[in-house]
Q: What sequence folds into this?
């Protein structure tokens, strides 16, 4: 009898705080999930909910003026939050690749982009000689669909287009054939056509390198195209986890339903689900369900009893005690959208 | 791009030098007293003063004198000192050498100190070490250099006689001897310059250390030392270079004061002496030399900023 394969990465009750002028403020509040080898896990949620903070934690990194305040991030069994700096260096960029939110600012403005890729290869001892590193860098650029790799390698970031910058950053992240690729909104700044190209490039790369991926986006529609499973985050907590098909067929949490409804509104479909109203206000979170101030279905009890993920189906978890009472409404997935 | 910049700067500099020499000439002209009276002293007869004035062409109209000086100067003839019958070049160059030694050593120490202290304070930003060094730089920034000089003399030459209070160059034989003799003037000049540059370096570096590309370098798994030296530092140097150019400009004035405090035989003291004698050729020569160093420093800084920042280079 064989159990499920061991996950590549296992995040367990992660807590991250940041220093907000005079006190520690919580950003990520007890988040747990795992990613299996070769799997792509998505994370959706609106701006400021803590997606990037979670993505960084997968590399054992937190931003300046912030701290890990609990939990574990186990990569192939080793807890990255407790690893000495030297060990972390060996893993970052080699076994775990990172694709940043904004490639334009994530590339060093005063260094040719080729150097920035080769530097990664050299730091991890992936190439014996400079020559070899150069060849490998040019090969990667070609794989990323960059025209004339040699010319591009000598360019500075400001001389490349947004799409080219994104491909360079992808090359950098994949240079050492990582087991896990963390992508923080990799297509957000790009126009729709370029975005589509990068997404199909990603699909090809995954087929070829077979790495697991953690894909962050505020756009559920993008996640639907690339992910096996999706997590939805709200105000630093996971409120729903499900396989992509299940999430769209059977969304449990009112917030997820709102996200899907706004997606359909954008695509011209008039759904029966209520749209999201209001904005995430971190300074006014209730003790109970954090979504309660904006929830169409909230009851007095919601404001006082904290909600955590509970299994509602096969691999499907929802953090809302009222989910069975909420009318399923017309199921949008039946109409063949998304 | 680079060549255009350098060429246009040289043209502008030459024009500025002309303006400087013109302004200095009139400033000296308007000062009360004149060379002949000063050279001959109080008891001199009106007759001997008139004779000397005639010999020095002081009776000519000012415009004629300026034109005469300029004509020779652009041909490389810096003329004779009015106060002492000696060619200006022989006067100015030994003093210039001394001043350049003093300024050069101060500049070297300044570069080393502001880089290291700047980097250290930025890396330990918000911690005790940074707080202390920051207080120190603020104190340094707010004190005029002659106060710093006098304080240093009082502490390190009088209270604790570690270093000589006067910088007498005649006894210097070796390089360590030179450093020893010049230690207090060097420290005085360095203190004033370093304070400002450290501040600049620290603040820039802190900002750059929080940038996305420094974060990216960390997430690529580069060692911290490489992240700081290779990714952060070059991008933080630009504004510090401009401060350095300003500092070199300040240095040209600072040496005048410091040389006087420490009785150091440099250009600055010569300038002060020459002004009291209305010795126009010497004053003009010193002004032109100091102004040229100033402009050259600015040009070098601008070129370096361009070289460091490819985005500016392209446009
Ligand atoms: N130094 C810090 N470290 C972590 N979080 C911080 C820090 N400074 C501020 N924050 C706050 O933490 C919250 C989470 O930020 P995070 O970048 O993770 O959000 P996000 O979901 O990635 O948002 P976006 O879609 O805008 O990128 C934000 O409200 C942000 O303002
Ligand atoms: S717990 Fe209550 S407030 Fe929270 S999502 Fe469910 S129904 Fe809405
Ligand atoms: Mg983000």
A:
């Amino acid at each position: 009898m064989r159990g499920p394969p061991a996950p590549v990465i296992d995040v367990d009750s992660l807590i991250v705080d940041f220093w907000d002028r005079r006190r520690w403020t919580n950003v990520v509040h007890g988040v747990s999930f795992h990613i299996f080898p070769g799997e792509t896990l998505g994370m959706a949620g609106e701006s400021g909910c803590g997606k990037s903070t979670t993505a960084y934690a997968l590399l054992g990194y937190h931003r300046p003026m912030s701290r890990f305040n609990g939990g574990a991030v186990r990569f192939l069994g080793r807890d990255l939050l407790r690893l000495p700096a030297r060990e972390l260096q060996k893993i970052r960029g080699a076994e775990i690749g990172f694709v940043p939110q904004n490639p334009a600012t994530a590339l060093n403005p005063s260094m040719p982009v080729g150097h920035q890729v080769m530097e990664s290869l050299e730091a991890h001892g992936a190439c014996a000689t400079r020559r070899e590193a150069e060849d490998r860098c040019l090969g990667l650029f070609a794989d990323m669909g960059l025209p004339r790799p040699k010319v591009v390698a000598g360019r500075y970031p400001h001389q490349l287009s947004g799409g080219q910058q994104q491909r360079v950053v992808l090359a950098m992240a994949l240079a050492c054939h990582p087991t896990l690729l963390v992508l923080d909104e990799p297509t957000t700044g790009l126009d729709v056509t370029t975005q589509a190209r990068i997404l199909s490039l990603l699909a090809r790369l995954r087929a070829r390198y077979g790495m697991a991926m953690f894909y962050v986006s505020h756009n559920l529609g993008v996640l639907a195209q690339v992910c096996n499973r999706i997590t939805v985050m709200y105000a630093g907590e996971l409120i729903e986890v499900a396989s992509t098909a299940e999430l769209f067929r059977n969304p449990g949490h009112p917030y997820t339903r709102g996200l899907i409804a706004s997606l359909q509104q954008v695509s011209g479909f008039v759904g029966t689900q209520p749209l999201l109203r209001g904005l995430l206000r971190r300074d006014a979170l209730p003790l109970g369900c954090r979504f309660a101030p904006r929830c169409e279905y909230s009851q007095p009890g919601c404001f006082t009893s904290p909600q955590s993920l509970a299994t509602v189906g096969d691999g499907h978890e929802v953090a809302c005690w009222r989910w069975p009472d909420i009318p399923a409404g017309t199921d949008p997935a039946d109409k063949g959208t998304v | 791009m680079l060549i255009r910049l350098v060429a246009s700067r040289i043209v502008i500099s030459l024009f500025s030098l002309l303006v400087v020499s013109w302004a200095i000439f009139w400033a000296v002209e308007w000062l009360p007293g004149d060379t002949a009276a000063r050279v001959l002293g109080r008891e001199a007869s009106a007759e001997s003063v008139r004779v000397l004035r005639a010999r020095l062409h002081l009776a000519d109209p000012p415009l004629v004198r300026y034109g005469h000086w300029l004509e020779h100067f652009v041909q490389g003839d810096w003329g004779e000192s009015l106060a002492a019958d000696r060619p200006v070049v022989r006067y100015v160059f030994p003093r210039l050498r001394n001043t350049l030694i003093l300024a050069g050593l101060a500049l070297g120490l300044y570069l080393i100190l502001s880089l290291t202290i700047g980097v250290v304070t930025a890396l330990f930003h918000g911690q005790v070490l940074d707080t202390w060094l920051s207080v120190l730089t603020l104190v340094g920034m707010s004190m005029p250099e002659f106060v710093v000089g006098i304080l240093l003399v009082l502490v390190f030459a009088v209270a604790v006689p570690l270093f000589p209070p006067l910088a007498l160059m005649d006894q210097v034989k070796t390089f360590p001897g030179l450093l020893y003799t010049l230690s207090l003037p060097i420290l005085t000049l360095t203190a004033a310059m370093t304070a400002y540059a450290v501040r600049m370096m620290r603040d820039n570096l802190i900002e750059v250390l929080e940038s996305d590309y420094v974060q990216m370098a960390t997430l690529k798994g580069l060692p911290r030392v490489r992240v700081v030296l290779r990714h952060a530092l070059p991008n933080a140097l630009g504004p510090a270079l401009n401060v350095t150019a300003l500092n070199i400009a300040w240095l040209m004035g600072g040496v005048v004061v410091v040389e006087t405090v420490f009785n150091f035989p440099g250009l600055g003291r010569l300038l002060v002496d020459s002004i009291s004698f209305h010795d126009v050729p010497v004053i003009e020569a010193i002004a032109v030399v100091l102004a040229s160093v100033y402009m050259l420093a600015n040009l070098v800084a601008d070129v370096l900023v361009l070289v460091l920042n490819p985005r500016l280079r392209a446009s």
